[in-house]
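Quick one, tokens below:
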């Protein structure tokens, strides 16, 4: 568990939970899910001292649940946001133009991060391997030490717990945005594999795995979008702030929330585009196979049409009659053979001119 006191442009890390709440600023408590399970009693008592309210038992269960989808809920004391982060990311190639021997898919896994947003306290519950807490702790400390604006995360220290929570959520969504490029490369490799004459059997399994991963990512993004939409609706339902500073801060929260929602929409749009691309690749593969089969059948039909009159001639002269023309002539065979040769060449030339023979592009 890490406890931070943020006041203005100052960030102070505390060694333990303070007994009284700080007179100014707010507290950020970042804790892993395992530690929250063992220490939630002490945290509940501290929240009662600081804010006059505690986490509802159902919300404590939500924060401890590792399978919970992204969602938003609120009470009169705090807002609860559960947001699924990207747990396992696709490994990047060493270079964009590096050749790839065979398409491969890395698993897409997600895990929830919980945010309990009070007026002057932010409680975040992270998985054990989550880097969101450490990333923001280090970045805020660097920002304070440098004494300059950090454009990547905002122009100043987060002025409120809600603002800090939205910055963390935006950082989580950006990891999904980074995933789009790797998914695109993987699907391009699969498409090239399916465009070949005979794709490997493993490619079909890769395609099924890819579709399952895209469905999982789409469901995750839809839950994220619903949670942020409910967050924005809750902000809109708040009574107008009398203080101009509070009104401006609330408007900045709306702007940041809409920006997060727009990022989620971009990820969701890209995932659906990839799903459509995968379906189109399969359809194009079967269309190419069907076209190749049609070409083979066309060639066989033309060959049958060429040899049909030749078979008729040989069948005619194979009859057991004494009075057949040319049957007793010394040159009869050569006349018949020449006629059959001319018929075969003529019909081949005719079908070639009609573009029934040969591979046409």
């Amino acid at each position: 568990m890490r406890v931070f006191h943020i006041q203005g442009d100052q960030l102070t890390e505390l060694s333990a939970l303070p007994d009284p709440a700080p007179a100014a600023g707010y507290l950020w408590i970042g804790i892993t899910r395992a530690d929250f399970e063992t220490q939630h009693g002490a945290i509940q008592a501290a929240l009662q001292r600081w804010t006059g309210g505690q986490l509802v038992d159902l919300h404590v269960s939500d924060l401890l649940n590792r399978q919970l989808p992204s969602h938003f809920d609120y009470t009169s004391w705090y807002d609860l946001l559960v947001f699924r982060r990207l747990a396992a990311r696709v490994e990047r190639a060493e270079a964009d133009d590096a050749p790839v021997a065979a398409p491969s898919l890395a698993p897409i896994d997600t895990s929830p991060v919980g945010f309990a947003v009070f007026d002057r306290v932010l409680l975040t519950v992270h998985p054990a391997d989550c880097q969101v807490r450490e990333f923001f702790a280090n970045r805020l400390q660097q920002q304070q030490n440098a004494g300059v604006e950090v454009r990547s995360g905002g122009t100043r220290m987060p002025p409120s717990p809600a603002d800090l929570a939205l910055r963390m959520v935006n950082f989580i969504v950006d990891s999904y945005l980074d995933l789009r490029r790797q998914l695109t490369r993987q699907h391009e490799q699969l498409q090239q594999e399916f465009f070949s004459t005979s794709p490997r059997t493993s490619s079909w399994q890769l395609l099924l795995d890819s579709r399952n991963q895209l469905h999982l990512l789409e469901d995750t993004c839809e839950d994220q979008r619903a949670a942020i939409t409910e967050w924005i609706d809750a902000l809109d339902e708040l009574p107008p702030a009398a203080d101009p500073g509070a009104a401006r801060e609330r408007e900045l929260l709306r702007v940041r929330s809409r920006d997060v929602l727009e990022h989620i929409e971009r990820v969701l749009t890209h995932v659906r585009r990839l799903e459509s691309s995968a379906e189109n690749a399969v359809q194009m593969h079967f269309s190419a196979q069907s076209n190749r089969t049609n070409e083979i059948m066309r060639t066989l039909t033309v060959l049958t049409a060429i040899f049909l009159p030749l078979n008729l001639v040989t069948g005619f002269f194979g009859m057991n009659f004494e009075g057949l023309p040319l049957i007793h002539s010394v040159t009869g065979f050569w006349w018949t053979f020449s006629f059959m040769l001319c018929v075969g060449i003529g019909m081949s030339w005719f079908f070639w001119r009609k573009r029934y023979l040969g591979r046409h592009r």
